Amino acid sequence: MKSPLTRVAVALLALAGCSNNAGAPPPPPAADTTAAVAPAAGPAAAPAATAAADAAPAAASSPATADKADESKLERAAPLPAAGKLPPGKWVAGTNYRVLVPAQPTDSAPGKVEIVEVFWYACPHCYALDPYLESWRKSRPSYIDFRRVPVTWQDVHRSHARLFYALEALGKEEALHNDVFAEMHDRKNIMYTQGNDAATLATQLAFVKAHGISEADFNNAYNSFTVQTDLTKADDLVHRYKVDGVPLIVINGKYVTDVGMAGGETSLISLITDLASSEKTR
Known about the structure:
This protein is about 50% helix and about 10% strand. The chain has about 280 residues and is an alpha+beta fold. It has one domain: 3-Layer(aba) Sandwich (Glutaredoxin). The protein has a 6-stranded mixed β-sheet with strand order 1-2-6-5-3-4, with helices on both faces. The chain is elongated and about 55 Å long.
């Protein structure tokens, strides 16, 4: 059993790790297509801080004149045809979501709208949002492709990202997604030892073996070219989306939002659905 001090250390590590503000972010790729986000907002607020906002309607008050000017400026940066604009006053660009400039490519087939959640398994805000996303994911419209991208800022994040992609390579990520969250947040086993890769791997092996995955299969996936390629792609997406806090939602490579910007978990789901619907009309 972990001591109270260890539990506190784990909790502090998880809270600090939900934002990349503690350290300098890695340099962006040299390509000119790296996204510029306008204007920037801070990391997603903790669920407790947004509970009251979640209960309030998104259009409780009219946006200020400055907000309207910002919205107009953003719409010009990423033009929307009249049919694709969101209902006036419901969601405000620069307040409830940000526009990625330039828009980023997606992996979805023509006619599909891609929704990406950038997350970290040890982030308590990601854990709090997950039940809302899971419920929405199971009932989402058929034209929406949903996928997760683990954040890769530092060694602890990359370690958990490798676990995510190893499980995905084994076809077990979806089945064990909730179990990984529960292991870290309910049982306080973060499955990471700073500066000790062998100890980190040992704790992750113990977890997957307890869920029916053999050591040989996990090691093969963990060290595979596929997983390394996935990690490299995740690095690139984190740079392109300018991720400085998780959970972060990216809609069709064009918009980013989070719990704090939307006004709560329930409002976030509504915003995702509305933005996806506006993309479907194009």
